[in-house]
Design brief:
single chain; mainly alpha; two-stranded antiparallel ribbon; 2 strands; 4% strand
Length: 170
């Protein structure tokens, strides 16, 4: 073998350079593994993101509705609720409405902060983007539009965006 078929490695030994078809296949396999890992991540995290967003929105809306009833209906509203629930004092209606509004509002704020502090939406968006880029890269690599070296650089660039996804856990 000529010296052009070898490349040095850090410890000074020489290793044989991989053939382009073999390199293309290995990179294609690696892209497939990364796609599977990102797909698994998205199947787990999209529903979580949606639950947090929905709970934030609906918790806030329901808390507002609970406080809007007495604000707009006044004593007629609270008297009606007092009769419906067979409560002895009208102050109990106010207490229950306020308590429910506080609980819903607090839970909605908690859900919003959990989503924000864990960057759930941002991570899901990054994973979706990376998955689309990897799929396009896979096609370009398989059709021969990219050589393995350029494809590897792009692969490294794309997966750097999703360092939070474990490639070994599809």
């Amino acid at each position: 073998m000529s010296t052009s078929d070898h490349r040095p490695i850090p410890d000074g030994k020489l290793i044989e350079k991989m053939k382009p078809t073999e390199a293309r296949q290995k990179l294609s396999d690696r892209i497939g593994m990364q796609e599977a890992a990102i797909g698994a991540y998205l199947r787990r995290e999209r529903p979580r993101r949606n639950r947090l967003v929905n709970f934030t929105v609906w918790g806030s809306v329901l808390a507002a509705i609970l406080t809007a009833g007495p604000a707009f209906g006044g004593t007629k509203f609270t008297s009606a609720l007092q009769k419906v629930f067979s409560l002895q004092e009208s102050s109990t209606v106010w207490q229950l409405l306020c308590l429910a509004a506080v609980l819903l509002s607090g839970a909605a704020a908690l859900a919003a902060n959990l989503a924000s502090s864990h960057s759930v939406a941002t991570k899901v968006t990054s994973a979706e983007t990376c998955l689309a880029q990897l799929r396009a890269l896979q096609v370009a690599l398989q059709l021969g539009y990219l050589n393995p070296e350029d494809a590897l650089k792009l692969f490294q660039q794309y997966v750097a965006q999703v360092s939070f996804v474990d490639p070994a856990a599809p």
